[in-house]
Amino acid sequence: HLATSLPLPSERHHLRPRINLIVFMIDIKSKYSLKNVEASLAHVDASFFLGKVCFLVTGVGRVNACSIETNAVCKLGEAYCSPVLFCELELEGIRVATAQRLVRMLQICTGHIPGVSALSFVSLMRNSDDD
Amino acid sequence: DNVDPQETAFLLHKAWTLYSVTPLYRFHRARLRDYARLLSAFIAAEKQKGLAVEVGVELGIKVAVSSLADLRGSEQDQAAVLVQLSLRSQASSRNSEDKLVWSGWFCSMYGDDLSENVPEDFTCLPLFLTHGAESYTSMVGSWFQKTFDCCFRRLAISPLNLSWMVAMWAGCKLDRADSAVELVFSVPHLSQPLDISYAVHPEDAKALWDTVQKTPGEITQEEVDVFMDCLYAHFHRHFKIHLSAAKLVKVSTAVASAHCDGIVKILHSQYLPEVLMLLTELAISQIQ
């Protein structure tokens, strides 16, 4: 399901299947996309931030076109206890690898991988902070 | 640091193309005249190979390499080095002067981050600015690369860095700010390219910056963000367009202007060290 911002329209609420993972996409070339994501985060229920949210930063291949400081995005990830993935959609290899990572995360979030739950993402992040 | 206005008059009001340069190996300031001679011979040889730029009578290029003692920031900075290419004058009459066709200068303004970590035998002048035909830039660059084992790269300026520049420069105190603060945006994803030019009265821009900046002399990313957000919000209120979704490609103030392709024009000698310091920092981060 794709949306340009949150909250999702309430009309379709009863038809919508359960949401297991929210990927917020931030285009490094667009300050507006960061602002949009920040505004949308306010509409997400707190329970999602236990491993069911991740930030995907696109366009990182073009360093000279960046309008957003990567530090700001990393801080956002820390504030919301959610992983930040960086990718370049224009390169097929990276696009495919990123898609595979997201599918893997989704499998974990829907409970299809025995022994691993979405909460693992949160504890993984905390461990790397302690390092 | 008082920079001699006469020495630096040549660099105002010209569009300079920016490059980053890695440290020069075994560059000796005492040998500037030798270098001029060698570079001149190199250019003559290149022209013989058929890479001539001028059509018609080839009069030969005269090369001058000089040191600009005052053009530096800290004690560790090397003084700037200026290279000038002139076409030899035709007649031997007293009134005919050589015509300056190309200038390029190496500079380091508070480039201590780089010069501190570099072994002896290396001279750090990370910023290179050129004005004139690209073919001459290419020849001069090739000679320096061969002679001092250094590497030149075009210095592009990201929208993030351009917004730093416009915030800093719009906030500069000037006796007379006679030109508007202008931001030019390029709108992506359209079939026909569209540029949006947003001009703000310089006093309004300075007043805005003054309300944002907390500590004089210090600028933070947050302050730059607030300044830009105010400009974006104002524009959106009037035109319902989110400039933050477009690409900032050029900024222009009474102090200086900068384009994302790495082209700057310095308009005011008073803030020359500040402008050069920012550009030196950009050049160093491209090298490292």
From TrEMBL, chain A:
Q: Where is this protein localized, as stated in its record?
A: Chromosome, Centromere; Nucleus
**What positions belong to coiled-coil segments?**
none
Major location category of this protein? nucleus
Q: Under which name does UniProt file this protein?
A: Centromere protein M
**Gene3D superfamilies to which the protein is assigned, alphabetical:** P-loop containing nucleotide triphosphate hydrolases (3.40.50.300)
Query: One GO CC term of this entry?
Result: nucleus
- Keywords attached to this entry: Centromere, Chromosome, Nucleus
The organism's taxonomy opens as:
Eukaryota, Metazoa, Chordata, Craniata, Vertebrata
Carries keyword Endoplasmic reticulum? no
A UniProt-annotated Pfam family = CENP-M
Q: Does the keyword Nucleus apply?
A: yes
Record's InterPro entries? Centromere_Cenp-M, P-loop_NTPase
Top-level taxon in the UniProt lineage: Eukaryota
Species in which this protein is naturally found: Oriolus oriolus
From TrEMBL, chain B:
Naming one, the record's GO cellular component terms include: nucleus
The name of this protein is Centromere protein L
Q: Which family does it belong to?
A: Belongs to the CENP-L/IML3 family.
Task: Provide the primary localization.
Answer: nucleus
Keywords for this protein = Centromere, Chromosome, Nucleus
Signal peptide positions on this chain: none
Per the record's keyword annotation, is Magnesium included, yes or no?
A: no
* A Pfam short name: CENP-L
Per UniProt, subcellular location reads as: Chromosome, Centromere; Nucleus
InterPro entries assigned to the protein according to its UniProt record, in alphabetical order: CENP-L
